[in-house]
């Protein structure tokens, strides 16, 4: 099977994400009803420090080369650390994304073991190239909502889209790149497995994707709740 067509179709949706201390990959996965808000998916570990410390984020649209610098007040980020997922909400016209988004696998479905999946990202060893990878699903860990895939992920690929090929139809998003799990022995590191998070956290974003103002209020509420929980755990 050739992945050339699917790789070509997904590239216009992909962005490079840079923070003062981190680099990763992201991709457009949704608009609000009026297309005034665009939602970018990535891994939470790519942006969580910038989110917590209100640091700037640079987002580069790969196909056009256009860049935007997002200060804290110019974006909204929903972080799900448990599932290593984050949604970055920006103004809809900030980057030249396609007008229509790619299909997402149904929330209660997952790619079956043995199915071949593709993914793209910006590995540090090939800067600034967007690279394509492919591998087969080795397992789906249901209590963690994640895939183990026979493939690789290099620093910079985290947050990239994982998708399946559908011949003449647009590729379908099934997850995001989270980490590479090496097979370590006492004296050397052997090939391991790729960990990819499923897309269920992003369906939660879709439920409340209104204006940026509404999203910011929700972000502030979630942040306050998380701080209260952390304070309670510390006091215990």
Automatic annotation (TrEMBL):
Annotated source species: Burkholderia contaminans
Record's compositionally biased regions (Low complexity): 223-236
Protein's name in the database: Serine protease
Matching Gene3D superfamilies: 2.40.10.120
Region span, Disordered: 217-236
GO terms under biological process: proteolysis
SUPFAM superfamilies: Trypsin-like serine proteases (SSF50494)
Keyword Ubl conjugation: no
Pfam families, sorted: Trypsin_2 (PF13365)
InterPro entries in the cross-refs: Peptidase_S1_PA
Ranges that cross the membrane: none
Signal sequence residues: none
Coiled-coil annotated spans: none
GO molecular function: peptidase activity
Keyword entries, A-Z: Hydrolase, Protease
